[in-house]
Amino acid sequence: MARAIAAAGKAAPRSRGVNVKRRLWHFHGGLRLPGHKAESMQEPIHAATLPDRLTIPLQQHIGEPAEPVVEVGQRVLKGQLLARASEYISVPVHASTSGTVSAIEDRAIPHPSGLQAPCIIIDSDGQDKWIEHAPINDYTGLEPSALRNVIREAGIVGLGGAGFPAFIKLNPGPDNVVDTLILNGAECEPYITCDAMLMQEQPRRIIEGLLIMKQALQARHCIIALEDNQPDAWQSLNDALEEDEKTFIELVKVPTIYPTGGEKQLIKVLTGKEVPSHGLPLDIHMVCHNVGTAAAVADTIHEGKPLISRYVTVTGDTVGQPCNLEVRIGTPFETLLEQCGWRDDRNDEIIMGGPLMGFTVDNPAVPVIKTTNCILSWPTAKEQQTPMPCIRCGECARVCPAQLLPQQLYWYARAKNFDRVQDFNLFDCIECGCCAYVCPSHIPLVQYYRFAKTEIWAQERDKKKADQARERHEFRQQRLERKKQEEEERKRRKKEMLKKSQGDETDGEDSKKAAIEAAMARARARRDEKNSQSQSGDKEDA
Ligand code: SF4
Ligand code: SF4
Questions:
Q1: From CA 332, how far away is CA 368, in angstroms rounded?
Q2: Ligand 1 pocket, residues with Cβ under 6 angstroms
Q3: What whole-number distance in Å separates Cα of residue 240 and Cα of residue 424?
Q4: pTM score
């Protein structure tokens, strides 16, 4: 993004904040960037056009894809379950309108790889008819686990961009205590304003969602944080908190420095605490959720609605009327761009997300998914800046909010030395793009980090598969060995029994023989006695 930096990496001025008692800290590095926010905040949020066809990917979240529970040709209603969670780290997807399932097949999805993935296609019947759904009248009577289950079944994921299943982040586990629940409204990347507009227009949805999340986490304190360049959003939230007497929720303005909205950076600014390397906010008793996620949770509990739509900023230099729209999941990008006065120039670069963390989408027909916060369109740069060799200027390290050494990461990622790149904490990189933004050699640093991460994950997957195959083989060998031993033991026992029974037979014959011999001996003795008696009688007669 060839936009000038107002001031790179300057220390943040201390914000007074709403709650003057809360001291604010600084995170390392960061950038002050031109916001380009006002363009898309001129009009209230309005509904996007209902397209004739919706393409709903089975995987719109971190984790395993959902499994279809509908068939081609089946009629579905708005909000109906289309695919159920397949594993623990997975969430269901639902129909965004009523109609007919016309296909279940691979389609282009918004992903940096540009690859296709399994999707359920719904041909809209134009009626937009809801399935029966009902609110939970008193969620305060529900156990945290029951609340999490409702949130899971509604298919809610983090709407800030990462797409992690919300119910998992609402489960601290039996041994953890959540001290502070932070709602992240610090929408720090330029151009994106969907969270700011949500805070401005519907503060109560956010507050209600926060209270539900507080109950699920059993959190002690709650903070809503937003950047100090959103005074209208702050006023709106502040008014709602005061009117509803929810002043125990802290509303805090943080300095507008990119990337304050990063989870670790926001925690540092608000509390001065560092999330450990390779660790989670929960390790320091904090949990962070996006304001949009909170609003989705409120819709689920108070209206019984699953996550089937979200707010999307449609903006950029080639968009005639930049604005924020409420969009059904599955709506093609081009439908929204056309609704916002896009001039349909195929040479435009279309980006999902912001200019620093987003990625280019080659096909404008890809659908909006749960993590689509912004669609940005501008003319493709006429001249691509050619990367030059690294001059070791150190600018990248100066602005890195994760306090990494980006040039070392680049060097080892480029050399495919994946052990060394991890020694330099590659996985602490939040891919904020600050380093690439300031690099005078125009090296696409983040692309190297993404490449290295993808390769390491692929290697780990392969290793896991190989380990599983080895375990299966070892298990089979053990089973065969055990079977062999059991067979040998069985044969040994049989042999022994045979031997024993043969021994018994021999003993029987011997005793029989002895009895016969004894009987014969007795007969001989009787005969001899008889003979001797007759001989003595003859002598007496003589
Ligand atoms: S900013 Fe660019 S040129 Fe400077 S040290 Fe980092 S990678 Fe090298
Ligand atoms: S992309 Fe990664 S390495 Fe570069 S500045 Fe951001 S966190 Fe640091």
A1: 6
A2: 390-396, 406-407, 410, 439-441, 443
A3: 45
A4: 0.84
